[in-house]
Amino acid sequence: MSNPVVAERYALALYQVAKEQNLSDKIDEELRAIKKVLVQNPGFISLLQSPKLSVVQKRNLIEQSLPNVSSPVTNTFMILADRHREDVLVEVAESYINHLNEERGIAEATVYSVRSLTADESKAISAVFAPKVGKQTLNIENIVDPNMLGGVKVRIGNRIFDGSLLGKLDRLGRQLTS
Questions:
Q1: Which domains are seen in the chain, by residue range?
Q2: Mean of the pLDDT values across residues 27-43?
Q3: Torsion of CA 24, 79, 36, 64, to 10 degrees
Q4: Nearest CA-CA partner of 46 in 58, 36, 34, 35
Q5: pTM (2 decimals)?
Q6: Within 13 Å, how many C-alpha atoms sit on residue 90's CB side?
Q7: What share of the chain has pLDDT > 90, as a percent?
Q8: What is the CA angle 11-133-152, rounded to 5?
Q9: Which single residue of 18, 53, 125, 171 could bond 27 by disulfide (Cβ 3.0 to 4.6 Å)?
């Protein structure tokens, strides 16, 4: 079975448990934090995949690394370790977040800007771009890129809305050369 399918199954099971126990928001926060740490530290997953570690050692490592995490998340990660599926930890987190976002009408967005966005600017961007992708609101991650010169570039899924000055200059240059 391919990794996305495996990750989807575990994420869906975790999502259902979270809904039953009214822990959806807490687990969402935990998985976002865990995903961020795992992406920044890929060596942890490599360590968990090591054939030198027994399943018991892997379980202990997960338990020690995630001491304040809810039991559904810990148990899911333990099951993944038991079944030698440590490679899908990040995908499980992403899939869970996607399920919760879909239920709530939220889309994940990355906004590139010259400076950090204020809360009001984030709300305004969410109000403008969420309807364009059929969602109620956006969960915005702001990335500061001083090379843009001005404006913003919004990435939602595989759609990019480029309103940056650099993007406009690039489009103008292409028009002039064609």
A1: 3-101 (1.10.520.20), 106-177 (no CATH)
A2: 91
A3: 100
A4: 58
A5: 0.80
A6: 13
A7: 62
A8: 105
A9: 18
CA atoms of 54 and 56, how far apart (whole Å): 5
CA angle 39, 88, 108 (to 5 degrees): 55
Averaged confidence pLDDT in the chain: 90
In which region does residue 22 sit, left (phi positive, over 0), alpha (psi from -120 to 50) or beta (all else)?
left
The helix (run of H) or strand (run of E) holding residue 162 is strand 159-162
One-letter amino acid at 49 equals Q
Q: Reply yes or no on whether the pLDDT at 74 is more than 80.
A: yes
Backbone angles phi, psi at 98, to 5 degrees: -65, -40
Q: Is the pLDDT reported for residue 75 higher than 80?
A: yes
CA dist 9 to 5, 15, 76, 163, Å? 6, 10, 11, 38
